[in-house]
Specification:
Layout lengths: L2 H13 L4 H14 L2 E12 L2 E2 L11 H12 L4 E11 L6 E3 L1 E8 L2 E8 L3 E3 L4 E11 H4 L5 H11 L7 E13 L2 E4 L4 E7 L1
Antiparallel strand pairs: 1-2, 1-3, 3-8, 4-7, 5-6, 5-9, 9-10, 9-11
Helix pairs in contact: 1-2
């Protein structure tokens, strides 16, 4: 029996509850524990409020955008926002669900964000859903020891431009609700993707 199933069973027994609702919640969490998580993409990349199209490079900026980027690089502040999208596949014959999720995202082994997504997720039986994790950070604060060119290249790399590879690391910890109690998955689910 897996660790998560044992924890659910212990909680279930200790609460002395045996309703159909609790049994359904246990099944959905057990199903979620069996789901397959895969990195899908990075999308909606914005730098200094500029929407970066797929494959866009510094050469694609207009004069006003290039001046804005130059000013930001001189001030050593480069705010970016983007979404990390994950595919969640449920191989089970009944739905898999969670009520919230803790997540940690890193770029090149530097932690960008450590927070909680309070949106519930319900993956249909034998189906796939996409989880979109929103990220907002200042690349200069994150990579303070890097050159201005390296920091700027990282923003464009997130949008798919050709440059040095970027390692995107993701750790997820889902939660379910059983009998009014929030139960966390025992370990983080870890994913890594190198953007070439």
């Amino acid at each position: 029996m897996s660790r998560i199933k044992r924890l659910i069973l212990i909680l279930f027994v200790s609460m002395g509850l045996s309703s159909c609702v609790l049994l359904e919640q246990m099944v959905q969490m057990s199903n979620f524990a069996n789901c397959d998580f895969k990195f899908n993409s990075v999308s909606d990349v914005q730098m200094l409020g500029i929407q970066l199209r797929q494959g866009m490079s510094r050469d694609d900026l207009n004069i006003g955008q290039a001046l804005l980027l130059t000013k930001a690089l001189l001030n050593k502040s480069l705010p970016v926002s983007f979404n990390v999208n994950l595919d969640v596949t449920n191989p089970n014959s009944s739905p898999a669900s969670m009520i919230k999720m803790d997540y940690i995202v890193s770029l090149n082994d530097k932690q960008v964000i450590n927070t909680t997504m309070n949106n519930g997720i319900n993956v249909p039986a034998n189906g796939t859903d996409v989880i979109s994790i929103p990220i907002t950070t200042d690349l200069f604060q994150l990579f303070s020891g890097e050159s201005t060119e390296a920091v700027a290249s990282l923003a464009f790399k997130l949008a798919g431009a050709s440059s040095d590879p970027v390692n995107v690391g993701i750790k997820l910890k889902p939660y379910i609700n059983i009998g009014g109690q929030q139960l966390a998955y025992p370990d983080y689910i870890t994913l890594n993707k190198v953007l070439q």
